Amino acid sequence: MPFTAKVDGQGRLTEISVDTKSVSPMLGEMRVAYDNFGKPVEIRKPDPSEVSDMPDELLGLMNA
Predict the structure, then answer these.
(1) 15-43 pLDDT, tens per residue?
(2) β pairing state of 29-33 and 3-7
């Protein structure tokens, strides 16, 4: 899949953008950014209102 990656002055990955349309047109672009290297991370469980089921089309791709 086509992607673009960016690194900072120390060579650490700071951003990646993946064009996932080649897998499924409904996916579009996936972009992830990384920062605050070395700082503690707090992870919280999402509220049920923030969660949705994966569409059947994508679920089929996961089982491929």
Answers:
(1) 999 988 877 777 888 899 999 999 999 99
(2) unpaired
